[in-house]
Batch of 3 targets.
Target 1
Amino acid sequence: MNRIKPTNFLILPFIFSLLNGVENYGAIGTSRPGAANPTSSIPTGLYQFEIGANFTTNQGGIDTSITFPILIRMGLFNNTEWQVGFSNKYLTLGILYGEISIIDGLENSFIFTTSLTQNNDSLTEYSVYLPISYSFRNGFSIWGQIAGTFININKCSNENYFTKNSCLDADWKWENNINISDPIIDYSLAIGNSLDDRTNWFFEVNPSEILKLKDDENNPFSIGYGATFLLDNNNAQFDFSMGLTFQKNGSIWKTLAAENYIEWGFSFRLPE
C-alpha cells in the first residue's frame, strides 16, 4: 500500500511562501467566477493560476458532469497577457490587451481566444471578447461584456445547444461528417459590491443568441450569483458561484431543460 509521505505536505507552505514573495501589486484580479472576462491584465513577469471545480446538472437532473478548468495567465508586457486554458477535452489559447481607460473609473479590454478538442476535427472555437467595467467610489461595481464565438463542429443526431458538446463523447452516434457554423453572440451584465475588505459578492445575467438557428432550437439565458474571498497577502483568492440556465423556445422561457451549476475556485499568482 502506498503511504503519503510527510514531505508531500510541504508543497502548500512552499506555495504560500511564494505568494508572500510577490511584490505589492494590489489585490489579485481574476477572470473567475462569472461569465465576463477581466478588463485588466496581470502585471508583467507574473504567472497567475485560476483553478476551478464545476458541477453541472442538466435536462431535469438526468445528466450530470464535473469539470476542472485551469487557466494560466502570463504577463507578457505592459497591459498584455498570454492565456492557456485546460478543461477536460478542451485546450484554449488566448491573448488579452487590457486596461484601456475610457473615462475615470471606466475601462475595457480586448480578448481573442481559440479552443480545440483532443480531436481537432470535432470542434474548433474562435472567440472575441469585449469586456467593460465601471467602479464607483463606494466600492460598488458594474461590469459586463459582449462576446462573439464562431464554432466549427461536426453535426450529430441530437442537435441542441446544450448537447452539441456532448457529441464529442463516444456514446453519441454521428449522423454525418459535415461541418456546420453556428455563430454565437453572448451578452453578460453583472453588479457587485464589497461586504468587507476581503469579501465581494456579485449577481449576473448572461443571455446568448445563436445565429442561424432552426425553428426547433433554443437560445440559452443564464442567471448567476456568487462571492470571492481575498487572502491577506492579496495574491490569492477563493471563489464560489452558482446559477441556472434556461432555454428559450420562441417567446417562451422553459425551465424544464434548465442547466444548474455550482462552481468553486482558487486563484493565485507567482513571481517569474
Note: The chain has one domain: 9-220+264-270.
Target 2
Amino acid sequence: MNLKAWRKNLQHHFVQINNIKISIYKNIQKNKPTAVLLHGFGGNYFGLTPLGYELSKKYSIIICDLPAHGKSSLHSFSSIDTYHSFYQDLISELKKINEIGLVVAHSFGCYLASDPKISNQIPTVLLNPVYDPSRSFLLGMKSSYNSSPLMILSNIPIFSPIKAVTLQKTWSLEASKNIYQNIFACQNSIKKLLAQKKTIPIALSNNAFKNKNNVKLAIIADNDTTVKPFQEKSFRTFFPSADFKIIKKSGHLLPMERPREIAEIIFKNIK
C-alpha cells in the first residue's frame, strides 16, 4: 500500500477532552502499540501522514489535530501548564483506543509532548523542537501576536508556497510533493488563525520546555532556521536525558522532507 492509499484508509473521528473536541485520524493494527503524532503550529494531521505511513510498519498510528487546528475545536491555551494538563487528559483518552508505545511531536507540538508526567511514562521523540529560537523565529512570532491583520495576511494561500520555500531544505521530488500537498490541506480560516494566535505566548515563554522532562530522543535538522545552530550544551539545558540525532541537508519541515529516515532512527533507538 502506498502513502496515498494509506492516508485514504485512515479512520477519522473525534474524542472529547473536557469541553474540547479533538479530531483524530487512526490506523490501528492488531498486536501493534500505538504511536501518537502531534503536529506543529498552523498545521494539521496531513503533514504527519508521510511519517505515520513509515512508522506504521511497526506501530499503530493516531495523528491528532491540536486544539484550534484542523477539525478540532477552536480552543486556545496561552500557558504551558494548562496545555500540559490538556495533554495528560488527551493521552488518557487515547489509551482507551489502544496501548500507547510512542509519542512523536514536531515543532510546536514538542511543547506539548515534553510534559514531564507523560514523557516519564511513554517514550517520547521530538522533531525539531524550538528550544533555542532564532531571532527570525522570535520576530515572526512576536509580530504575529502583536498584529492580528499581519497574522491573517501572512497566512493567506498566496504566501504559503513562499513560506514553504524558506523552510524546505531537502530538495527531492518526494519532499516537495509532501510539502506542497500539505499547503493545500492546511488552509486555515480567519477564526482558526486568531485562535491559534492566542497560543503564541507558549512559544515565547522561557519555561515552555521544563528540565524535568524525560524525552528519549530528539531528531534535529541541521538547517532548521527556526532555531539557533545546534550546540549540545544548550540542548542539554532543556533535554538532560535525551539522545539526539542530526539529519543533514534538511530543514524545519523534517517530517515531510525525510519521513523514512526519521522512522529508521526511531526503530533503531526506541525499543
Note: Residues 236 and 242 are 8 Å apart (CA to CA).
Target 3
Amino acid sequence: MINSEMLKKYIKRYVYKMFTAKEFVKVKSLEEAWELNQRRSNKIIGGMMWLKMSTSHLNKLIDMSELGLGTIEETDEEFIIGCLTPLRDLELHSGLDSYSCGSVKEALRSIVGVQFRNLATVGGSIFGRYGFSDVISVFMSMDSYVELYKGGIVPLSEFVNMKHDNDILVRLIVKKTPMKFHYYSVRNTRTDFSVLTCAAATDGKKIRIAVGARPAKATIFEKNLSDCKYAESFALEAAEKIETGSNMRAKAEYRTHLVKVLAKRAYEGFGGVK
C-alpha cells in the first residue's frame, strides 16, 4: 500500500523531473524557425532524446518537420543529409555504407538501441557538439561540412569548436572524396557511451584519425604517409599529440593507451607496415 510519504517521494523523483513547454509551433519556413529560436526560452526540437530527460521550462517548441529536412540525397559528388534525418536512416543507407567502407554503420550500431536511433536526429547529434558523439567522430574523418542557416557552409572540423549560438544546422554535407575508412570504438558495455572513438581515413597520401570521447570533443591527427612509414611510430606520435582526460568511464592514462592501440590498428588496417 502506498502511503502519503511514498507518494511525495515518487512525485519529487519522477513527476517534477521533466521538461515543460507552453506552446508547440510547427513552422512554415527556416526564417520563421530562426526568428523564434533567437529567444533563449524557445527550442528547436528533433527526436527530443535528451530534452525529454531535462527539467527545462520552455516557452515554445519549434517543429521543423514540414520543411523537408528528413532526407538523404545522394549525387555523384556528395551526400546531402537533412538535419531531421534519423540516425537509423544513416545506418541503413546503402550509399553511405558503401562509400564509408562500413564505417557509418559501425559508428552508429551501438548508440543505445534501434528505438533510440529511430528518433535521434543527425542535426541534434552534431549541433550539440557532444564529446561522446560517434556521429561527429565518424564524419570528421571524412570531407564533411555543415550548412548553417545564417552562417553558411562550414567544415565540420571547424564547426565542432565554434561557440554555441542560436543559428540552425540545416544539413550535413559529405563530399565523395575518394578515400578508405575504418571506425573503431571501445565501450565498457555495448550500448554505453564510448570510452574512446577512432575514425580513420586515407587517400593514399595522408592518413587521418578523428579521435573522440577523450572525453572532450573529437580532434583530428593527420600525417603524410611518406613522413610516417610504420604503424608503431604513427601510433606513438598520435598518443603524444592527442590530449585525453578522465571521467567516470576511464582515466586519462587508459585513454592515451587506447589512442595508441586504435591508431596502430587503423594504420595497419590500411595496409601499412607494422
Note: The longest strand covers residues 194-202.
